[in-house]
């Protein structure tokens, strides 16, 4: 199996992002994670638990922030309060800003905070009782940061799902820069996911005559 490179968007600094004109929209999302000493089937290390949300597509908790009325952090915390209900992030949790591709000019800001596994579980419980649960937000999921012996189960299978906007790029970027997974392992998982998607598409398309 050929190894795909890990895709990246154009990264800019927070200062550069704040200098962008009114034609740019700002989205702020949060990656919450915790070290996980558990083992799947008693033999596959879990390593970390990372939370993402599902609303028909996979993404990180957060949303768009109107810079006319909110700072990045205040706007992010306002959205998190609707979907998680129990967490406030600060500028110290800021991780990155990326420019998105396409007709809409959006700069995507990502925040990351490491919690204890108990704190992460408390966030999951709180999210069920938040205002948007069952409406816009359909639940939180944990990212499986392991690959099973078949080289598809676990993280590769997860990457073959549909992600919203820049969420997949941000996940891969964060896992790399936070040293949660080596870049070569990220590339291997991405290649396996791409191959799985290709085979699934081939099954759906009629065979050429």
Structural notes for this entry:
- With 209 residues, the protein is an alpha+beta fold.
- It has a domain at 11-146: Nucleoside Triphosphate Pyrophosphohydrolase.
- 32% of the residues lie in helices and 27% in strands.
- The protein contains six helices and eight strands; from the N terminus they run βαββββαββαβααα.
- Strands 1, 2, 3, 4, 5, 6, 7 and 8 form an eight-stranded mixed beta sheet that branches.
- Strand 6 (94-99) and strand 7 (106-115) form a beta hairpin.
- The radius of gyration is 18 Å and the shape is globular.
- The model has no long low-confidence stretch (mean pLDDT 90).
- Keywords: Nucleus, RNA-binding.
- It comes from Carlito syrichta (Philippine tarsier).
- Belongs to the Nudix hydrolase family. TIRR subfamily.
- Pfam families: Nudt16-like.
- One of its GO terms (cellular component) is nucleus.
């Amino acid at each position: 199996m050929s190894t795909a490179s890990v895709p990246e968007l154009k990264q800019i600094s927070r200062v550069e992002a704040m200098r962008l004109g009114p034609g740019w929209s700002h989205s702020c999302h949060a990656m919450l994670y915790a070290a996980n000493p558990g083992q799947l089937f008693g033999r596959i290390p879990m390593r970390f638990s990372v939370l993402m949300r599902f609303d028909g597509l996979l993404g990180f908790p957060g949303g768009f922030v109107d810079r006319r009325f909110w700072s990045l952090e205040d706007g992010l915390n306002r959205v998190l309060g609707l979907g998680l209900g129990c967490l406030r992030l600060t500028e110290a949790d800021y991780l990155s800003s990326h420019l998105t591709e396409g007709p809409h000019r959006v700069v995507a800001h990502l925040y990351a905070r490491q919690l204890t596994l108990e704190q992460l579980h408390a966030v999951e419980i709180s999210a069920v009782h938040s205002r948007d649960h069952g409406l816009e937000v359909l639940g939180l999921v944990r990212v499986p940061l392991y690959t099973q012996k078949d080289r598809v189960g676990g993280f590769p299978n997860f990457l073959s799902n549909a992600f919203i906007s820049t969420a997949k790029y941000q996940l891969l970027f964060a896992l790399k820069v936070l040293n949660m997974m080596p870049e070569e392992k990220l590339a291997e998982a991405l290649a396996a996911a791409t191959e799985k998607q290709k085979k699934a598409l081939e099954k759906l398309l009629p065979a050429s005559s």
